[in-house]
Design a protein that fits this description.
With 536 residues, the protein is an alpha/beta fold. The chain has 15 helices and 20 strands. The longest helix is centred in the middle third of the chain and has 26 residues. The two termini are 29 Å apart. The structure holds ligand BES, manganese (II) ion and zinc ion. Ligand BES binds next to helix 11.
């Protein structure tokens, strides 16, 4: 999708569909809404007074304009209460603009947001008496409003269609699959007739916010593509190829380890999982060198399990196809690296993705087997379906030893227990460092990808005690997300480390207008916002 930003009149240029936000607590019509009402001879005001549109979150009402050279359609999008508006409000606004366009088979959209910039040149002062609805920037800030709208547009415009060949089949009901929106622009409009410098966004700053939103969405959409590709396409070698392509595009350093290099590194845990499959494993490493040569990097580590059958501890058949998404953590790390590369963030970041299948053959792990991890600790495999923590254990110790990161964050579709604990609205957050966890919570809040802490208290550790090895790979039913976190913490050592369990949030059915059912790309935005917060 082409995305641009303009500080100009949204009614001035042609566009298939122009979306305008309407807040439920707005008193009267101002700015572009007032202009729309004028052009439709008061029809918008009548729709409001009759209660047909109140500005409730999710309301939409579309008008057709007759004037040549301007928008053909204008959709008023309900955004809920302005007092409660946050970044997510504007992500949804962008998303609804695109969904409405799709419904009407329109492929170019614009969104106008008033009150972001001063209506008079700076210094000429003004009355400062903007009405509430014009000051929608107050809570979130103009840059965040524009960035979030941009994310909403670019994320909503994504779909996974690369494996569909029959889209043009005349017998196909094409109502199901409208053309994708290819162009979008955001208009920041001054509020007319109100000499004021209230919006403190400057046009250059807002253009930069557009660039940030676009990069976040591009990274997240890459993650969604990788997630959506099935197990027979997105193999460990495929993920490695995509990573090498990213390295080329963004100037990252890269290392790809295959089975031989893993033997040299004594990655007995990752290798034990990979031996159950004909697909060769890969350990993928990307190095973004945006900081000084001696600055220890931030490390992002993502589980890249390209298909999880459970192994000998086989999963039930029902729903097993969704285990192609078991590489979602790895996909988010690659997506985050792409965004970081696009933004050229001035910080060192290393992205690490251990990638394997978890299948069944004559060499597969068996319950009761004891394997030796890269860190030297031995693990008794109680359940071969707890494979994510095994491949992550070796990736964490590798990252620590080779990169000495100042902080290490892993993300993984690690446990069903996480889904039981937090459902689909927050990732579980566990770790060794309170400050780091606070940073991640804050980043998740900003990004609209929430995480919430679970306690990594000492008594839970006992559940991993083994008779025959240093630890077991499962700790029984109680607190499964926590014992999985404890397992990982054994391999993070004293590096400030945090773990995001994204089993309930990385994919699924969605209620959000800027996503579709399937791959969400979660937590790409969270990871990038966290890295951005470390830049300052
Ligand atoms: N990939 C699964 C976790 C998962 C479950 C992700 C549901 C997404 C949705 C992981 O490898 C797994 O199988 N975990 C087991 C661990 C258990 C055997 C201790 C689980 O959660 O059942
Ligand atoms: Mn599993
Ligand atoms: Zn798994």
């Amino acid at each position: 999708m082409d995305l641009e930003f303009r500080a100009s009149d949204p009614f001035a240029g042609p566009v298939g569909l122009l979306a305008l936000p309407l807040f439920s607590d707005a008193e009267g019509l101002t700015g572009p809404l007032q202009e729309l009402d004028r052009r439709v001879n008061g029809a918008l005001n009548r729709a409001r007074t009759s209660g047909d549109i109140r500005g409730k979150d999710g309301d939409t009402l579309t008008f057709y304009l007759s004037a040549e050279g301007g928008p053909s359609r204008v959709t008023v999008v309900g955004c809920g209460s302005l007092a409660d508006a946050d970044g997510e409000t504007f992500r949804k606004l962008g998303g609804r603009a695109v969904r409405e366009a799709e419904k009407l088979f329109v492929t170019d959209v614009a969104v106008a947001i008033p009150g972001l910039i001063p209506s008079d040149p700076p210094g000429q002062g003004g009355t400062g008496d903007l009405r509430e609805e014009e000051r929608m920037v107050n809570r979130v800030g103009p840059d965040r409003v524009v960035q979030a709208t941009d994310e909403g547009l670019a994320l909503a415009g994504w779909d996974f269609r690369e494996l569909i060949t029959q889209a043009d089949d005349p017998s196909h009901d094409d109502e199901d699959r409208p053309p994708l929106v290819t162009g979008a622009r955001i208009h920041a409009t001054p509020v007319k007739g109100n000499g004021t410098s209230h919006g403190d966004g400057d046009v250059e700053g807002l253009a930069e916010a557009v660039r940030v939103g676009r990069a976040l969405a591009a990274g997240q959409n890459l993650a969604r593509d990788l997630q959506s590709r099935p197990g027979n396409v997105a193999t460990p070698t495929h993920l490695a190829e995509v990573a090498l392509q990213l390295a080329e595009e963004h100037g990252f350093g890269s290392r790809i380890l295959g089975p031989e290099e893993m033997e040299e590194e004594e990655m007995g845990a990752l290798l034990s999982v990979a031996r159950g499959s004909d697909q060769e494993p890969r350990l993928i490493v990307l190095e973004h060198r945006g900081g000084g040569g001696d600055q220890p990097p931030l490390a992002l580590v993502g589980k890249g399990l390209t298909f999880d059958s459970g192994g000998i501890s086989l999963k039930p058949a029902k729903g097993m196809e969704s285990m192609k998404y078991d590489m979602s953590g790895g996909a988010a790390v690659l997506g985050a690296m792409k965004a970081i590369g696009l933004l050229g963030l001035p910080v060192n970041v290393v992205g690490v993705v251990p990638s394997s299948e978890n299948l069944i053959n004559g060499s597969a792990n068996k319950p009761g087997d004891v394997i030796r991890t890269r860190a030297g600790k031995t693990v008794e495999i109680i359940n071969t379906d707890a494979e994510g923590r095994l491949i992550l254990a070796d990736a964490l110790s590798y990252t620590r030893d080779h990169y000495g990161p100042s902080a290490m964050v892993d993300c993984a579709t690690l446990t069903g227990a996480c889904v039981v604990a937090l459902g689909h609205h927050a990732a579980a957050l566990l770790g060794s460092d309170e400050g780091l966890q606070d940073e991640l919570r804050e980043a998740g809040e900003l990004a609209g990808e929430r995480c919430w802490p679970l306690p990594l208290w000492k008594p839970y550790r006992k559940q991993l005690k083994s008779q025959v090895a240093d630890l077991k790979n499962v700790g029984g039913r109680p607190a499964g997300a926590i014992t999985a976190g404890w397992f990982l913490s054994e391999f993070a050592g004293d590096t400030p480390w945090a773990h995001l369990d994204v089993a309930g949030t990385a994919y699924g059915d969605t209620e959000l207008p800027y996503r579709r059912d399937g791959a969400f790309g979660f937590p790409t935005r969270l990871l990038v916002e966290w890295v951005r917060s470390r830049v300052g």
